[in-house]
Every structure is written in structure tokens, then in C-alpha cells.
Amino acid sequence: QGQFYFLDKFILLNSGDRLRLYKYNLDFTSNDLKRYENKSRYRQVTSVHTDGKISTFGAPNSFYSYLAVVAGSDRSLSVYDFNTETLTPYIQEAHTRPAYTVKINIGSKFASQGPTSYNLFLTSALSDGIALWDLRTPKCVRRFTEHANRGIETGISFSPCGRFVVD
Q1: What is the pTM of this model?
Q2: Sign of torsion, CA 103 66 137 115?
């Protein structure tokens, strides 16, 4: 899994038990004589080692945030702070199965939200429904179990106003 991070300045990737942060520079020169020379570069900035395999992660890209939420195959959730380079165990058994989706509330350009709504994130696991979490408290705020998914991974997100969960 991979995604852009920190307003597209970095690429965040997971591989096994590591979460890797890469800085990249794309070369857009349009010289016909040197068009086959690739001068685009990347380098690894940091690598985070976790106790178990990472099943998924989530990090906001549309605003400056130093946090990434990491879901492990051991059903745990952790929060990594890139500013202090610390991995904080958040909760040990978040779901009955490993989470396959982590979505952080990033808001919208077209609807305003309160400042505390950016502390919310969602996780989802097979046959366990959706869980709503708040970064300020190490427990589940609400579970949505009426739509238990038993076989196919589905996407989840917050509505632009931040008041609804879209499955």
C-alpha cells in the first residue's frame, strides 16, 4: 500500500513490518535529445519498524499533519508521529480480525468542520463492521455493526461535512 503524504511532498509505503517515508523529485525537462535520461530521484527519509506485519495505514495528505495511523495484522492500532519519530501503541485489539481500511477525517474545501473533528478516524475489518476512533482517547467511540461485511473489502470515508460515514 502506498500514498502521497504531507501535501504531496513525500510518499508513504508499507512493506511487511515497516512503514517507509520517501522524498521524491520528478524531472519534467522536455529536451528531445535527452528525453531518455531519467533524472527523477527518490530517497528514503525514515523507516518505522513495527512489532508485527502492517495490514494497512492512513495518513492525511490534504493538510500538514505529522501523524499516521497504522493497523497491524495482530489487530492492533498504533499512531506514528513523524515529528518526534515515536510509535505509540494505541489499542491492542481494535477488531476481531485485522483491519483492512484506515480513513482519517481530512475535511473538505467546500464544507467547514469543527477543529476537534480532525481527531477522528475510521477503521474497518471483515465481519466486524466499522469503528469510529478519536485520537484523544484510546478507545472506540462508536461501532457501526449493521453492515457487517463478510467477504469483500469495501471502502469507507467521512462525508464532506464530517457528520456522516459513507460506506
Answers
A1: 0.85
A2: negative
